[in-house]
Amino acid sequence: MQSQRGFSLIELMVAMVIGLIISGAVLQVFISNKNTFQLQNASGHLQENGRFALQYLAAEIRPAGVGMGVRLAEESICVVGTNGAASEWNSMNRPIWAQRITANGALGAVGTDQLSLFVNDNCGAFLTAGEILRPGVNANIKVTAYCPSMQQNRAVMVMDIEKAVIIRVTNKPNASGSGVVTLSHAAGTNDKAASCGGFKFSDIAFTDPARVVGFSSKIFYVADTGRKDVDGQAVRALYVRDVSSVPAQSQEVVEGVESMHTRFGVASTNSVGVQSYMTAAEVEAANRWGDVRTVKIDLLMVSDGRAPGAQDQAIEFDGAAVAADGRMRQVFSTVVALRNRID
Predict the structure, then answer these.
(1) Residue 327: which domain range?
(2) Most CB within 10 Å of its CB: which of 65, 87, 151, 162?
């Protein structure tokens, strides 16, 4: 009967070394696959959010200024509806307007652009002949047609070729049938201290035909959400603020938008095509908002948390280097033509 022999110490050590090598190789493959998955997941999330943000903004920008008709000087627009956003309606006679945020406390993060768009419903409603608007008392005004934008707690503009008054609709206008439609505006929703330019605040008479315009006035901006990502970094998002709703309402559109910059394609007088691209400050300084034909949008998107390899990522946004912090970033850009401004 033969005696049984076990492994020698050398054989055990060799086997352990081989096992460690195989385990290390398997672990390396696992880590590599995990990093690849995290990288692809972060990239896919950036692509999804970036494309959605551009498509959303493009759809909102294209109709800017549609149905505006006569453009009035800002001092001729009298905002009497309280609880609204009177300060945010200052540029509503422009189809499009923007500014770079330079100080805390503004609507949007410092260094980002704020973009304002105005569209009216252009549905052809008019003030009935001889109607007088009395903002100082509870009143009903009669209009010739119902427009979808004539909703309770929405703002509407009554305007002729000289002036415009913005009131808050406090009733629920009847959408059924045809003929005269009544819009109510309670005295408590009107600002008696409103500045109305060169016309009297009380008993405002309009020159026939006076249009009654429902409108969409929106502001797009980038701001902190107040949330943190998985690594404790502050999360920013693209927001839209509807200032034609009373009171104005802000809503988050998509997260991961770290910054937004804009440039505007400006056409020369009586020109068909865009002659140059200008920043918001340059357009403002030259008073060229009426000549804007296209808008270039640049979005800096950032991942939700750190991504493998992103700690050394070199990226530029609007000509400036962006400091790497371990999160993946990508710039998304598009150019949008204003439909009603193509000559």
Answers:
(1) 43-69+94-117+217-341
(2) 65
Give dist(CA 15, CA 24) in Å, integer: 14
- Asked whether residue 246 is assigned to any structural domain, the reply reads yes
Give strand ranges (E) for the chain. 77-79, 96-100, 113-120, 132-133, 139-143, 155-159, 164-168, 181-185, 204-205, 211-228, 234-242, 249-255, 257-266, 276-278, 292-306, 315-317, 320-322, 327-337
Q: Please check the confidence at residue 152 and state whether its pLDDT lies above 70.
A: yes
- Let me know how long the chain is: 343
Two tokens, residue 338: 């204003």
From 56, 60, 55, 62, select the one nearest 340 (Cα to Cα): 62
Q: Are 231 and 326 in contact (CB under 8 A)?
A: yes
262, pLDDT greater than 90: yes
Cα–Cα distance, 49 to 41 (Å, whole number): 12
Distance from C-alpha of 89 to C-alpha of 83, rounded to nearest angstrom: 13
pTM of the model: 0.79
Rounded alpha-carbon distances, angstroms, from residue 291 to 57, 89, 276, 294: 20, 20, 11, 9
- How far out from the chain centre does Cα 269 lie? 29
Q: How many domains does the chain have?
A: 1
